[in-house]
Each structure stands twice: as C-alpha cells, then as structure tokens.
Design a protein that fits this description.
This protein has 496 residues and is of the alpha/beta class. Helix content is 38%, strand content 16%. The structure holds pyridoxal-5'-phosphate. It comes from Niveispirillum lacus.
C-alpha cells in the first residue's frame, strides 16, 4: 500500500520568524532555537550538529536566512566566537553559505553533490540546468532520515571494529546472512548465508561473475538491447558480445540456443525481471525454457536482478529454477543507496573457489562499512519500508508520465520500473528527438545507447523518471518531449 510514510521523530530545534523590516526580495531571518542540551562535546560542535540535523529534517529548509552571529549568541547565551565557529563548521560541511551583506543561508543539501555526466574521456562535467531523464538514479532524499538512523546505530555496534578487520574475500558471515534475508523478502530467493558472496556493487558482481565463467576472446550472449554497463565489463574482459533476438515478451529461448550453438558461447547475461531498457519481465514459461536450454547445451546464465525488488509479487528467479546453471547478481543500489556499494553474487557451489579467487585478486576483501549500514537497514526492517516507498514513488511518477504522454503507446512499458521505454511513431526519428530535446534542456537516451555492435535496435527511447528531485521538473521535461513527438518537424535537423 502506498501511503504517507513518516520518518521517525527525532529531536528537533524550533524556528520562528523575526519581526522587523527587511529589503524586498530577501527571505526573512528566522529565530532558531537549536536542541543542544543533550549533545556531548564542545558547544560549537553541538550547534553545528543541531544545524545539520534541522537542515536534514526540514526544520530549516533551503534558502532560510539564519540569525546573525550576534543574535544567536544572545539567544543561546554563548559568545559570538562560539557561533562563528559553529557556522564555520557547518559551512565546511557545505550546509550553509554566507553572502556578504545578505547574511548566512541554508544551502539545498540535495545540491551538495552536483549532478554529473560522464564525457568521452571519463571527465566529469556539470549538468547545470539540464532536466536529466537519462540516468536511472533513484530519488534518495525521502530516505535520508532512515540512512542517518542506521548509520548512527552502526556507529554504536559493539562488533563494529571486528567487522572492520580483514575478512575472507567472501565477506563477513553476519552481513551475508542479512543479504540472504533481503533476497528472501525482496526476490523470494531462498538461499543460505554461505551461498552469498559480497561484491562492490552490481557492477563488481557482474565483473566477478563474468570473469569466473569466461576467458578473453570468448563470446557472451546478451539481449538485443542491454545494460550499457555490461558492455563496459565485456570490453574490459575482452569478450565478444552477440545480441540475441527478443520479441514483445523478451528473450527468445530458441534464439538463445541457436546463437550459443552457432557462436560457441558458454554464457548468457540477461535481466529476466524489468529488463533495462525494455522493462520486459520474462514469463515463467520462458524462464523454465531458458534454464532447460542452459542445461542442455552447457550455458551459464548470468541473471542481473537489480530492478527485481520493484516487481511484486516477485517472479521466480532463474537461480531458483536452475541453481546449477545460474549466477545471480544484484545490488542494493536501486533498492537502498548506490553509495553503499553493496553488491552480491549467488552462484553454484562448484564455482565458489573460482569466485573467491577473483574477489581476492581484485578487491581482497569487501568494503564492509557500506554493507554494515545495509545490514542494519535490513535487520531493522527499514530496508523493506524504503523499498516500499521506492515502489510508491515509481507508481506516482509513472502515473504522472502517463498522463502527460497520454497520446502515446506506453502499453508495452511496465509501470513498475523507474523508466519508460517508449517506442516512437514512424514519423519520429529517435536521434532527432534526442537532439531536439537536448537543445531544449532535456536529456534522454535513444535505443542505440543500449545496442550491441551493429545489431539492430528499435525506434525507441528510454526516459528515466526518478533522477530529477521534483515532479515539476519531470512534468516540464515530459511536456517538452510530448511537444516534440507531436510535432516532429520541430526537432528535425539538416533543413538545408
Ligand atoms: C541492469 C543493471 N545492472 C547493474 C547496475 C549497476 O548497479 P550498481 O550501482 O550496484 O553497480 C545497473 C545500474 O544502473 C543496472 O541498470
């Protein structure tokens, strides 16, 4: 059920408006009473911590003009120097900023990390003013209080230091047990903790799994349009990618068998649930057929399930249907936080030594801190609530998108996932639409971005719905796209 899910109540400061005259177009200064009595350590730190907390919990929204050093010092009965140090500390953390002659303002914490795009040379560029609907990032801010609470709980764990010592390359047993619980809850995948290997994100899990079952020069089968991150892994490992035909219901098991035989392939990478980019979920029948093909011809299935938690009830994973022929890879990047870098692999036991050797050679041991926070979220039940909030947010944004794009055929795009896969009318060229949109400040991705080699791709685009903070931005971006699609001449190039 999608309802309003409230963050846990925490100790908040209070604010009230200060009376008096102020220049036009300037926000009012607030009178802020921070809750500092319970905080240990030096006073300035307590005030800075209270500022951080009240900015995080919304008591002090972005743009708020804070009291002057002198006024706050008077209110709190401390020296002006203490307030100056507190504000300096908060400024160092990027929470507030001073403007000469105007005062001290709360910055927008969401903007502390500027949105970035990767350019060809790996350089990062600012994406200022762009409505970026090209990245399948998830809105994380509604879950900031849960992350803060979990991180604080982790800091107090009596076993924290032991969790931070060198572990086996497979990861600490307690954390693997938490992931096993998560898989049971979110993917209906029931495995023992010692069947779970920790990896650095889904990307690390893909790299490790593919390294275990391929050698440079091998052929890897993939869906006709696939996740671009997989292409990067394949390039790195020296694999040759062969796209396999799909229809409206996804990957065709017969085509897999044929391609494997004619190219001598021993591995297939696929996303059976909410495929990126097509959003297709394979039917049970096709899943069974794929497992049968894999067993018959000796094919290892690399099943990527990062979006699987969004599809409820969960369809059976390929791993649960064919644990002997499936390496299941996933992460908590979409369901919780990408910065946790918590990825994992569940695979057939005979491959474990090989997987462990690769993990030892590449990362030595998992980066546990992120996974300890993830385990805290899972064990406390918070991860399940976050996942549910994500599903609700996806449902809201999908419904908004479908209202704005109501004239277009979105019947083949599953509303459970974070993006739209939009087949374009014949009159609209995907390259022109992408270019025309970019000229108007909206970024989307053409099907070509998901193609493999010279393989054919449909005349379609992917539109990500969750990467922008506010639905108003999404509405604006989608309206631009709608306008361009209904008037394709507007985005056409090369007139003369
Ligand atoms: C299908 C798929 N697999 C894997 C990943 C990588 O996830 P992670 O951030 O955990 O490395 C992504 C990220 O977008 C993805 O879409």
């Amino acid at each position: 059920m999608c309802g309003l899910l409230r963050a846990p109540m925490r100790c908040r400061g209070t604010i009230s408006a200060l009376s008096g005259t102020r220049p036009m177009n300037q926000p009012a200064t607030v009178r802020w009473q921070p809750a500092i009595a319970h905080r240990p350590g030096p006073l300035y730190r307590a005030i800075a911590a209270a500022l951080a907390e009240d900015i995080g919990n919304g008591t002090l929204p972005p743009g708020t003009r804070l009291p002057t050093h002198r006024d706050l010092a008077w209110d709190l009965k401390v020296t002006v120097g203490t307030i100056t140090r507190a504000y300096q500390e908060a400024e160092r953390q990027g929470l507030i900023g001073g403007e000469v002659g105007r005062g001290t303002f709360v910055r927008d914490p969401r903007r502390l990390v500027e949105p970035v795009v990767e350019s060809g040379g790996g350089l990062l560029e600012m994406n200022l003013g762009l409505i970026d609907l090209s990245v399948n990032a998830t809105a994380l801010w509604p879950d900031a209080p849960a992350l803060t609470a979990a991180t604080q709980a982790v800091a107090l764990r009596p076993d924290l230091v032991s969790l931070m010592s060198y572990q086996t390359p497979l990861g600490h047993h307690r954390l693997r047990a938490a992931i096993a619980d998560w898989l049971a809850d979110s993917a209906d995948l029931h495995v023992a903790a010692d069947q779970v290997l920790l990896a650095v994100g889904g990307q690390g899990a893909m790299l490790t799994a593919l390294s275990a079952v391929t050698r440079p020069g091998d052929t890897l089968l993939v869906e006709q349009v696939t996740y671009p991150g997989l292409r990067a892994v394949a390039l790195h490992l020296g694999l040759r990618l062969v796209p396999v035909a799909m229809d409206a219901d996804g990957l065709l098991p017969d085509a897999v068998e044929q391609a494997a035989r004619s190219h001598g392939a021993h591995a297939l990478y696929c996303m059976p649930t909410l495929q990126n980019p097509t959003t297709i979920t394979l039917s049970l029948e096709r899943r069974r057929a794929l497992v049968e093909v894999a067993r018959r011809i000796g094919l290892m299935l690399i099943e990527d399930d990062v979006y699987g938690f969004l599809k409820q009830p969960s369809p059976p994973t390929l791993h649960s249907l064919g644990p002997d022929v499936t390496l299941y890879v996933s992460s908590l990047s979409k369901s919780l936080f990408p910065g946790l870098r918590t990825g994992f692999i569940v695979g057939p036991r005979p491959l474990f030594d090989r997987l462990a050797t690769i993990l030892r050679a590449t990362v030595l041991a998992p980066a546990h801190l992120g996974t300890v926070v993830a385990a805290e979220l899972i064990d406390s039940g918070e991860a399940g609530r976050i996942a549910q909030r994500r599903r609700c947010l996806v449902a809201e944004r999908q419904s908004l998108a479908r209202t704005i794009l109501s004239g277009l055929d979105l019947s083949g795009s599953d509303p459970a996932v974070t993006h739209l896969w939009l087949p374009l009318p014949e009159t609209v060229r995907r390259d022109e639409l992408v270019r025309g949109a970019l000229e108007r400040g909206v970024k989307i991705t053409a099907a070509d971005g998901f193609g493999v080699g010279r393989g054919e791709v449909p005349n379609a685009v992917r539109i990500c719905l969750m990467g922008v903070d506010h639905s108003a931005q999404l509405e604006k971006g989608l309206s631009v796209l709608d306008g361009l699609i209904s008037n394709p001449v507007a985005s056409a190039s090369a007139w003369v």
